[in-house]
Structure formats: C-alpha cells, structure tokens
Amino acid sequence: MNGKSVKLAVLEGDGIGREVVQSAVDILRFAAGKNSFPLELVDLKIGLDAYKLFGRTFPPETLDGMRQCDGWILGPLSAGSYPKDDKDYPMASGKIRKEFDLFANIRPIKSLAKSSDKNIDLVIVRENTEDFYPDRNLFKGYGEFWPNEDTVLSLRVITRKACARIAETAFRLASSRSGKKLVTAVHKSNVLIEGDGLFLEEVRRAAKKFPNIHLNDGLVDSVAMQLVISPQSFDVIVTTNMFGDILSDVAAGTVGGLGLAPSLNSGDKYAMAQAVHGSAPDIAGKGIANPTAEILSTAMLLRWLYSKTGNECARNTAQDIERSTFELLASPESAALTVDLGGNASTKKFTDEIIEKIGKSS
Ligand code: NAD
Known about the structure:
Oligomer: single chain
Mean pLDDT: 95
Low-confidence stretches: none
Largest sheet: 10 strands, mixed
Number of helices: 11
Distance between the termini: 24 Å
Number of strands: 12
Structural class: alpha/beta
Helix content: 40-55%
Bound molecules: nicotinamide-adenine-dinucleotide
Strand content: 15-25%
Shape: globular
Radius of gyration: 20 Å
Strand order of the largest sheet: 2-1-3-12-11-4-5-10-8-9
C-alpha cells in the first residue's frame, strides 16, 4: 500500500479559501516529497468560481471528480451570499456531507499558539448529517416550510442510527487519546425532551461498550460557559449538529481564534479536510489569513488515510506537517506569526516558514 499513489481533490472554495488552501497544498506537496509519498492532487471547482464557470456552486463535474479521489481538501464556502438562482443553493458543504455520508465532524481544539499557553486539549465530535440542518436532514426536499406568509417551521431530525454512530465515534476517540478518558455528552434534554432524550439514550448505550471511559453530560448553555471558564476540564465532547457547530467556535476562541481550529468530516468510506472557519470576507484577498486550520485539517486527512490503509508515508507526512506547524506557532518571533496571532507575517511568509522547518527536520 505504501507505494500506491494517493489521489486527493483540492477544492479552494470562497473568500480566504484560495489563500489558506493554497498554503495547505504547498506544505502538503513539500512534505509528501520529503517522505516519498506518491500523491496526485486534482483541482475541482466549487463555490463562486464554479458558479462563474458552470452556473452552479456544486456542479456534477465536481461531484464526479470527487468520486475518483481518495480524499478531499475543501476550503470555506460563502454560502450565505450565494445567488438565489444557483441550482445548488443554499450549500454545497451540506450536500457533500449527505452525499458521502460524512457523519462525524471531528474538531480538535488545542493550545498551540504562544499567545494561548493554557494547556487546552479537547475534541468536539459533532454529528454532521441531521438535527436542525434543513439542507441535509430530509431524504428529499428542504427541512424548512412556510405554512403561511407569517410563519416558518424548521424541522429538527434526530435518529437513533446517527446518535449511535456519533456516540461510538466519540468513545473510540476518547479511548485512543492519552487524555482524561472522558466523554461529555452535550444536549438540551430539558427542552428538546424527545430528540435529546434519544441522543442521550444512545450515548449511554455506547458508553457500556467502553468501561474505561468516564461519561458525563451537560446542558449546552452551561457547557458553553464551562468551555469559556475551564476548557481544560474537557476531553471529548459529543453532541448534535447545531450545538457542535456553535460550541466549536466558542472553543476556538479559547485557544486564539478560528484560524487555529482544524476539522475532519469523516464517514466509513470517505473523509474531507475542512477548517472550522468560514470564508472571512473581511480579510479575503489581503494575504493575511492564518492557514493553520486548513493545514492541520489536511494533516488530519492524512492520518485518516493511514488509519484506513496503513499508508505509512501518509502518516509520516502528517507528522512532519504537524511538528513544523506546532513549532512555528510556539515561536516567540512575532515576525513569523499571522496578524490574528499578534504577528505581522503574511499567509505566504507563514507557509514558507513551515516549509523551511519541514526541510530542516530529519
Ligand atoms: P468566518 O469564520 O468567516 O469569520 C469570523 C471571524 O473570524 C472574522 O473576523 C474572520 O476574519 C476571522 N477568521 C476566520 N478565519 C480566519 C483565519 N483563517 N485567519 C484569520 N482570521 C480568521 O465567519 P462569518 O464571517 O460568520 O462567515 C462568513 C461566510 O463564511 C458566510 O458566508 C458563512 O456562511 C460562511 N461560513 C462557511 C463555513 C464553511 O464553509 N465551513 C463555516 C462558517 C461560515
């Protein structure tokens, strides 16, 4: 397997997508070369670039291209500003998660930057295919309705299958980590009595298979506050789709911001690297975005490939990327860090520094 070429699709997306995905890809190419990891990268169009070319943000050509690949690197999508005549409106990202059944969104939050030396190390395991997300929670159609002009109904979908598999994923992850061996289930079962009751039932069922992992749970509002005042008390958080999305941004704030929050969308067969952050229109095109989240998401994809195929070149490449990125983030030199981290380096300079570190490491 080690000699087999791995084919990854690169989908830049919108806004800062071009800058951060370019950075991740430059680093990936260099680290793969150093580790003799045969890699083929294929560019596919998505988002506003795709709309300009094909009149839609997620054209069938892109979906077909994705099917030919072993994994995907996706940048952020400005879904909030897509044209209403786009056939794929409102969001390609939801379509991908549904089409390829990427049911688990794994979002590590770790103190990496010098500016955030707080010893935080937790992972949010977010269900990715249902809940309040109307672009993916129905077999056909959209889960929001206008029964009359003054009323909107938004449908929440919670299934036993999705709860069971996300719970298993969280416990397996907690077992593999050298952390506190703790899973915290986050819910709002005092209000969403049936849906979150079902979620908790399945989390507790999964817990029985992992006697070495401690389980506790909390209401989402209270956990949001705990994440701010004592993020160190968490290890693995498992939760439903919308709560997971919101809590990830809260948690990212505790370690220095969205530029530092990577994520992997994964299912049984496929996986996709995709940073937690959005397309950041306020800084897009300025060359100052922090690419760390996309770089570390890419490393997560390589580790996923290793776990599926045993490809050691993929794992070694991931290790090189992570080690050099962590080293740079711990650097006392503000000249090497991006603006969000208190430095003045451009995305390009930050990228070049990581590549230089990879080149120098043995
Ligand atoms: P955002 O995540 O794009 O930005 C929030 C803030 O964080 C902004 O101030 C931005 O400058 C900053 N930020 C984000 N990433 C950064 C980085 N890598 N380096 C430095 N600073 C960074 O959220 P938003 O402004 O609410 O959303 C903008 C657009 O992104 C919307 O169209 C939204 O729909 C979309 N969005 C997409 C995704 C995704 O594709 N995964 C996720 C969230 C939002």
